[in-house]
Write a structure and sequence with these properties.
Layout lengths: L1 E6 L5 H11 L4 E2 L2 H8 L14 H15 L5 E5 L4 H12 L5 E7 L2 H10 L8 H15 L8 E3 L5 H16 L5
Parallel strand pairs: 1-3, 1-4, 2-3, 4-5
Helix pairs in contact: 1-7, 2-3, 3-4, 5-6
């Protein structure tokens, strides 16, 4: 099984993924951002977001499926706001024949900005405007039904959110469910 934990930068995806990993024995986290870090420095490519690279989307699918060969479920925290990219990743994972669950963590942009600042995204950092701009884009895009199932994160602890997700995942795994 693949569990996509989508959401804006700063909404809590990585924190929730770590808590969820603790709650689901034999699970593993596959972080597609690492794939992006590898691809980003390629000089022939001028991009502002590595998700715009078809190679990133393909390698994310390949990497997650490889991880899924030895562990399951694979928890994949990511910040995809382009529904076509999300569909591409989901379809690639589904070709494995395993279930693909998608949860989109949400919070008001004000809460997300507070969290970004708390984690050290300083106004002095040139990347600040990019991260905050992308966070706002994600918060807006993630309101669409293509990004459901929505999971609100404001006023809830990461462990409480992870516990909710674990219950949904375990229900999906129960006998008689796809």
């Amino acid at each position: 099984m693949f569990v996509l934990i989508n959401g804006a930068f700063g909404v809590g995806k990585s924190t929730v993924a770590r808590k969820l990993r603790f709650l689901l024995p034999r699970s593993a986290i596959f972080d597609p951002e690492l794939v992006g870090f590898i691809l980003q420095p390629i000089p022939s490519r001028r991009i502002s977001d590595f998700q715009d690279l078809a190679s990133w989307r393909r390698l994310t699918v390949v990497g997650a499926r490889c991880a899924g060969a030895v562990r399951t479920p694979i928890i994949i925290p990511m910040a995809i706001s382009n529904s076509a990219y999300l569909d591409e990743v989901r379809a690639g994972l589904a070709k494995s024949g395993r279930p693909v669950l998608h949860f989109c963590l949400t919070a008001p942009i004000e809460v997300v900005r507070e969290r970004l600042t708390a984690r050290g995204e300083s106004h002095d950092d040139p990347a600040w405007s990019w991260v905050h701009r992308r966070a706002a884009e994600c918060c807006q895009a993630h309101q669409a039904s293509a990004f459901a199932t929505h999971v609100p994160t404001d006023k809830r602890s990461p462990m409480r959110i992870a516990t909710q997700l674990a219950a949904l995942i375990l229900t999906h795994r129960s006998p008689g469910r796809g």
